Amino acid sequence: MNTGLGLNMAVTVFLGCLVGIVIVAQTLYGSTMEHIKEFGTVKAIGGSNADIYSILTKQASIAAIAGYIVGAAMAHGLGPAMAKADLKLLISNELSVMVFVGALAVNHYNYRTTKDIDLAIAAPLDEQKLVRLGYTRWSESKGGSWLSPRGIKVDFYTKDVGRIPVT
């Protein structure tokens, strides 16, 4: 007799993996946006996109490994309870690899987010040049705030800020 329990379990596992990957993506994105100024500082002192990607990859790897360890421990901890209920808990290597790779793959969006960090420019920029470069004035701005071509808010200063001379 075919009950369809196997298909239900497969769909449940798939949805669980999908939700886990989305949670990891949101966590990494939130962390990236929270530290966008630090990534800008890395670029300002001469760091490349590859340096920032390296930081993000390490962060994603730590999250993926920690999440995998916690999830695997919980799954193996449920093994005896599942056995008492006459259910088998099988965790294939393919599923384990898929979850781990998925957690790393969602970090690709963070690469695109940090790619557009602009450096502070000492050369004077007028509005026409900013518009030609794809910037748009931020609607709530009273002066120097613009949105980059990817929608990141950028402030341009015309006075000395934090002892950094503006020429």
Fold and architecture overview:
It contains six helices and three strands, in the order ααααααβββ. It has helices at 5-34, 36-44, 49-84, 93-105, 108-115, 127-132, and strands at residues 136-137, 145-147, 153-155. A hairpin with a 7-residue loop joins strand 1 (136-137) and strand 2 (145-147). It has a three-stranded antiparallel β-sheet with strand order 1-2-3, with no helix packed on it. The protein is elongated, with a radius of gyration of 23 Å. The chain is mainly α and 167 residues long. The protein folds into two domains: 5-117, no CATH class; 118-167, no CATH class. The N and C termini lie far apart (81 Å).
Mean pLDDT: 75
Radius of gyration over alpha carbons?
23 Å
SSE pattern, N- to C-terminal = HHHHHHEEE
Number of domains: 2
- Main sheet: which strands, in order across? 1-2-3
* Rough outline: elongated
The major beta sheet can be summarized as:
3 strands, antiparallel
Q: Could you tell me how far the N terminus lies from the C terminus, measured between alpha carbons in angstroms? A: 81 Å
Unreliable runs: none
Return the structural class: mainly alpha
Instruction: Assign a percent range to the helix content.
Output: 55-70%
- Number of discrete helical segments: 6
Annotation, overall tally of beta strands? 3
Q: Into which percentage range does the β-strand content fall?
A: under 5%
Oligomer designation: single chain
